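Q: Predict the bound structure with aspartic acid.
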Amino acid sequence: MKLHTKILLGLLAGVAAGLLLALLQIGGVAAYIRPVGDIFIKLLKMIAIPLIMISIMSATAAFVDLKKLGRVGLKGVSFFLVSMGFAVALGIAAATLFQPGKSLDPERKAAIMAEIQADGDWRQQIAGSGQAAQKSVADFLLSLIPANPFRAMAEGDMLALITFSILLGLAFNLIAPGKKDKVLPLLDAANDALIALVKGVMKLAPLAVFALIASVTAQFGFHFLLALLEYSLVTMGVMAFFLFAYYGLAVWLLGRFHPLTFFKSLRSVGLLAFSTSSSNAVLPENMISCEQKLGIGRGVVSFILPLGATINMSGTSIYHGVSAVFIAQVFGIALTLQQQLTIVLTATLAAVGTAGIPGIGIITLAMVLGSAGIPLEGIGLIIGVERILDMCRTVLNVMGDSAAALIVDRSEKRRERKRAWI
Ligand code: ASP
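A: Predicted complex:
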């Protein structure tokens, strides 16, 4: 049986087991199953940082063409930014059209808020994100340079690690060729060993997905899903549309690649993203699938995917767009065009600043609401369905990275073929 089929079975069995536990009102049992899933996520995260660093270093060390490196980066970042901006705009448009906030009557709103008030944790987290929003562009640029790369590693500061790895990789081109030739096979071997490790860890995936999904389902507040049905459906609907229509078309038109093959090749990546809610945890498997199933060159994979896992969050952008409009509707605020444009801008930046780990999108949403003058308490309204929406948005966040890698790779290959002709 293929791995993605096993993962899918694990997911379905997890939903069934979780529902059963919830029905029997013994949802607490889930806490005993969950560690299997957590072990899996930790193992993948354990590999992610060395894999990012070594693969970027080995790619840039072999990438003597600096112009190509710049071009690849520019194409990737442009695709990310355009996709995220478009994703927010689509989220705003859909929420304005379907008006999910209008159908939430004041009684239901008060009931949800009262239940959530009991859990004060989110308020503190959100207060922290307000401070993060005050970071200036200069602060952001400075944060790209790690004063201490080991601390960046320990703290999982991906952008800083990417900068360090690119610079060190490039520096290998400045040393004596004889020495560089000794280092390259070493980096390559370490890269292969890490990939072999990912493949070993992936054997745990079906069981881990079962554990993660069973525990989420057992503890999920289904009454929240029903109370916020319109909001949840609009958010998920826009995400599904964006995934298949926008990324499908982009892969087809810009990458000249059949969208069905693209989605089929990434089935296990999508299922993992859904089950783990973490772009960072899925990164190693995504790198392997993009290279081996989609035939994307290692240079592009090593560069675009880690960058994407850190800054490209189109699922989170849609979530920000729909949520901002939904909360404004519930609070009876009619958003002006200027406020909507502000949301597009800040939500794109907020998504860039969202780390690829579970549940960060709802924290960065505070930045978006704050910028458009929408009450932050609104976050309390949607926190009950946060987990399921996080699972969905992570699928888009990850698939968007793969789409970007494919498009950049194919455009570079076309360019090389053209040059060979001349
Ligand atoms: N969980 C998402 C991811 O890892 C980020 C978010 O919370 O929106 O991609």
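A: The two ends are 47 Å apart (CA to CA).
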